[in-house]
């Protein structure tokens, strides 16, 4: 099991963002917190906002601000916690932190240390902790929705419910082993157990499939622009990015490397990638760029294949199996165009760009699926879920009830590792290092 915090240090940090700002929030946690608060601010009422003059060690006023005191264990970290809300000047925050950390037993917090204490004190499980990191880092509406649902425990509850079912299944099988000689244990009990285990394998596998959607929410839906040199790729890239992010010239082979801009479409993160035009026998730099373009397209969520409708040039093979939109370019000079295109655009006069954005947004939305789904949010979860289903399959096909019960135990243990209900010491560093100081 998880060992309690070795040190009884109290910790302090600036928990709000970059200074200067309107206000700064300084957080303190640990056994010294009440003493620190009462020394700096005088007596305060627990769980209420207290407007106080805040005093340095020499009695001079640092600032006037709000003080909140949350006695443990009903606080974020489970320890005594205080927040000082002061004016957000750099010198104010610095003086506050200097004053607080000059108390014996109080030091600056390490990154993620408040959250780590919350986890170690049982205030959050591991999945909720990860979701909190996602919430702090969320940039798009989809990322926020996804993170807040998991921070509220939706994902943890799913894994815990599977684990409870397995623990129950194992208890039933073990009861059957113990009472095997007695006649009144119905054989159908174990049948029901095994059919539930088999149903659970299906549920877990469906859940694992959702990881792709979770990755798109977190990392973005990747759209790669491909086409022959001079097809108008960089012009489209700039038009959608609304800035001159890529160089545009009438010289074929202008773009040689991958360029990326991030957009927010329907509240989803979309990464748009410009690439080198595909053609044969170019120079050394350009051919590396072309290789990169093809490799990038192989992993894309959507490829926009651009063709100059005024001067169509075939680019040969495009990666198979990747959703593709054929986009005819330069409609301002080519008219309707000859070839077959899903969409016709002009980056010069802007026509067709709204339709293209709508199409990309719709495809991104479809790729992340139903908003209500609970998805695995880390590769760590997927790996443990796969191990769990391997054990479940072994349990289903295994010989001998004892061995099969043991496979059930191992599967339940893997599920327990996801939420941190069983030994996870080795993981803690990785997870808490995702946080900034003050969280
Ligand atoms: N009339 C017209 N010209 C365009 C349009 N889009 C691009 N062009 C012109 O086509 C030429 C090539 O445009 P780029 O955007 O650099 O083409 P690219 O596909 O990025 O080319 P490479 O980087 O060399 O592969 C430039 O001279 C652009 O001004 C358009 O919508 N209409
Ligand atoms: Mg280009």
Automatic annotation (TrEMBL):
List cofactor names only.
K(+)
Give the primary localization class. cytoplasm
Task: Give the EC number(s) under which this enzyme is classified.
Answer: 3.6.-.-
Compartments where found: Cytoplasm
**InterPro entries assigned to the protein according to its UniProt record, in alphabetical order:** G_TrmE (IPR031168), GTP-bd (IPR006073), GTP-bd_TrmE_N (IPR018948), GTPase_MnmE (IPR004520), MnmE_dom2 (IPR027368), MnmE_helical (IPR025867), P-loop_NTPase (IPR027417), Small_GTP-bd (IPR005225)
Explain how, and how many, cofactor molecules are bound: Binds 1 potassium ion per subunit.
Please, one GO biological process term?
tRNA wobble uridine modification
Question: From the UniProt record, which GO molecular function terms apply?
Answer: GTP binding; GTPase activity; metal ion binding
Q: Which GO terms describe its cellular component?
A: cytoplasm
Keyword entries, A-Z: Cytoplasm, GTP-binding, Hydrolase, Magnesium, Metal-binding, Nucleotide-binding, Potassium, tRNA processing
**Where is GTP annotated to bind?**
230-235, 249-255, 274-277
- What positions does the domain TrmE-type G occupy? 220-365
Residues binding (6S)-5-formyl-5,6,7,8-tetrahydrofolate are: 27, 83, 123, 439
| Positions with a binding annotation for Mg(2+) | 234, 255
State the similarity comment: Belongs to the TRAFAC class TrmE-Era-EngA-EngB-Septin-like GTPase superfamily. TrmE GTPase family.
Q: How does this polypeptide assemble, per the annotation?
A: Homodimer. Heterotetramer of two MnmE and two MnmG subunits.
Function (record text): Exhibits a very high intrinsic GTPase hydrolysis rate. Involved in the addition of a carboxymethylaminomethyl (cmnm) group at the wobble position (U34) of certain tRNAs, forming tRNA-cmnm(5)s(2)U34.
UniProt protein name: tRNA modification GTPase MnmE
């Amino acid at each position: 099991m998880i060992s309690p915090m070795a040190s009884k240090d109290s910790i302090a940090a600036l928990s709000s963002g970059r200074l200067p700002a309107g206000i700064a929030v300084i957080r303190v946690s640990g056994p010294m917190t009440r003493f620190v608060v009462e020394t700096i601010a005088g007596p305060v009422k627990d769980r209420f906002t207290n407007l106080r003059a805040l005093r340095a060690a020499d009695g001079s006023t640092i600032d006037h601000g709000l003080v909140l005191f949350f006695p443990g264990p009903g606080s974020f970290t489970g320890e005594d916690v205080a927040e000082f809300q002061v004016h957000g000047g750099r010198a104010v925050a610095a003086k506050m932190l200097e004053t607080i950390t000059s108390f014996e037993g109080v030091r600056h917090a390490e990154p993620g240390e408040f959250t780590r204490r919350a986890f170690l004190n049982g205030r959050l499980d591991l999945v909720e902790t990860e979701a909190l990191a996602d919430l702090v880092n969320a940039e798009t509406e989809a990322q926020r929705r996804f993170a807040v649902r998991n921070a509220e425990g939706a994902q943890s509850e799913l894994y815990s419910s599977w684990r409870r079912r397995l623990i129950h299944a194992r208890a039933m099988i073990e009861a059957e082993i113990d009472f095997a000689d007695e006649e009144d244990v119905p054989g159908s009990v174990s049948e029901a157990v095994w059919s539930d285990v088999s149903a659970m394998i299906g549920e877990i596998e469906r859940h694992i499939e959702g990881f792709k959607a979770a990755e798109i929410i977190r990392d973005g839906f990747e759209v790669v622009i491909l086409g022959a040199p001079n097809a108008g790729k960089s012009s489209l890239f700039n038009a959608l990015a609304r800035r001159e992010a890529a160089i545009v010239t009438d010289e074929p082979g202008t773009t040689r490397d991958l360029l990326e801009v991030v957009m927010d479409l329907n509240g989803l993160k979309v990464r748009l990638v410009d690439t080198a035009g595909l053609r044969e026998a170019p120079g050394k730099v350009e051919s590396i760029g072309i290789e990169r373009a093809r490799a990038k397209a192989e992993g894309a969520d959507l490829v926009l294949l651009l063709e100059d409708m005024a001067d169509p040039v075939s680019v040969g093979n495009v990666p198979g199996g990747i959703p593709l939109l054929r986009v005819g370019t330069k409609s301002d000079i080519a008219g309707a165009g000859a070839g077959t295109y899903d969409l016709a655009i002009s980056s010069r006069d802007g026509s067709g760009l709204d339709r293209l954005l709508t199409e990309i947004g719709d495809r991104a939305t479809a790729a992340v699926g139903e908003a209500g789904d609970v998805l695995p949010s880390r590769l760590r979860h997927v790996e443990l879920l796969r191990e769990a289903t391997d054990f479940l399959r072994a349990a289903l096909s295994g010989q001998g009830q004892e061995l099969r019960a043991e496979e059930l135990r191992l599967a339940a243990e893997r599920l327990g590792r996801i939420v941190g209900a069983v030994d996870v010491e080795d993981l803690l560093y990785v997870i808490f290092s995702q946080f900034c100081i003050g969280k």
